[in-house]
Specification:
Blueprint: E1 14-17, H1 30-42, E2 47-50, H2 62-76, E3 81-85, H3 91-104, E4 108-112, H4 121-134, E5 139-143, H5 145-148, H6 154-160, E6 166-171, H7 176-186, E7 190-192, H8 198-203, E8 208-211, H9 214-229, H10 233-242, H11 244-249, H12 255-265, H13 282-294
């Protein structure tokens, strides 16, 4: 049974885009994934994204993706929303992954803007609609033009919001003005997809976060959100400012790389990376320790 949701917070409020743990030989570590998922939920996440970019989805097979969803649902599916990343730049493949995720027990789908082939807005509209039509699961759009090359324009999001199963947007556009207008016009529940902008996006109408730093500071993210929602903006701002070194440090290089390093420093399941991602250098690891310590993270 999926956790309780509301139309305003269809996937909860604090979600972490979870890394995919691998064994020393590079194979999928399902036991590690279940232990990490349980740790993240215990720390305050009420949702997890699996098979997203932070989960190294470009280098995991379809079978691995299905097995990972099934394992995480088994571990925490009664306590947290398990949302499966199914976005690709091939609509047919995305539909296959969406149906596979539903069969594996996912509670929802994350669908990123098609990357590299740079479709026009009409192509985006048809792509997301086809995925939403393919299963009974609720869908979160993922708008990240810095990776995909194409933004989802406001008019397109407004039209997509009319679909009964497109119920949220993960915003990594970095444009508060455009977010303000699109939230107001679409009425779509909005999740920050950029940790540095978590608090600013709350101020223009976001309902929660899809975080990377939630791997290491989920309790603080929860406290910041709860403070803001309760009206204590001063406390929320204090927490935001305390976390600035973490927001900065976790993105000095590619986020999966730093996240797996941070988890390893804490003795949590992570394992190696798959090429083309590579481990931090000793100097980069030393800087990460400084950044995390400055933000209050215990290592």
């Amino acid at each position: 049974m999926a956790p309780t949701s509301t139309p305003q917070t269809p996937f909860g409020r604090v979600l972490t885009a979870m890394v995919t743990p691998f064994a020393a030989d590079g194979a999928l570590d399902l036991d590690g994934a279940q232990r990490l998922a349980a740790h993240l939920v215990d720390a305050g996440n009420d949702g997890l994204i699996v098979n997203g970019t932070t989960g190294e989805s470009p280098t995991t097979s379809d079978a691995e993706k299905s097995n990972l969803v099934r394992a995480v649902v088994e571990a925490v599916g009664d306590r947290a929303h398990v949302v499966a990343g199914v976005g690709t730049n091939d609509t047919r493949h995305s539909i296959e992954l969406a149906r596979q995720a539903q069969q594996a027990g996912a509670h929802g789908l994350l669908t990123v803007t098609p990357y590299y082939n740079k479709p026009p807005q009409e192509g985006l509209l048809r792509h997301f609609t086809a995925i939403a039509d393919a299963t009974e699961l609720p869908v979160m759009l993922y708008d990240i033009p810095g990776r995909s090359g194409v933004p989802i324009n406001t008019e397109t999001i407004v039209r997509l919001a009319e679909h009964p199963r497109i119920v949220a947007n993960k915003d990594a556009k970095g444009d508060l003005g455009r977010a303000s207008w699109t939230i107001a016009r679409s009425g779509l529940p909005w999740y920050s997809g950029d940790d540095m902008l978590n608090l600013p996006l709350l101020s223009v109408g976001a309902v929660g976060f899809v975080s990377v730093v939630g791997h290491v500071v989920a309790p603080e993210l929860r406290a910041m959100l709860d403070a803001y929602v309760s009206g204590d903006v001063h406390k929320a701002t204090e927490i935001h400012q305390k976390l600035l070194p973490v927001f900065t440090g976790m993105f000095r290089t590619q986020g999966v790389i730093t996240t797996k390093a941070a988890l390893a420093l804490q003795g949590l399941p992570a394992g190696p990376l798959r090429l083309p991602l590579v481990e931090l250098t000793p100097d980069e690891t030393a800087q990460l320790k400084i950044d995390l310590a400055a933000g209050g993270v215990q290592l």
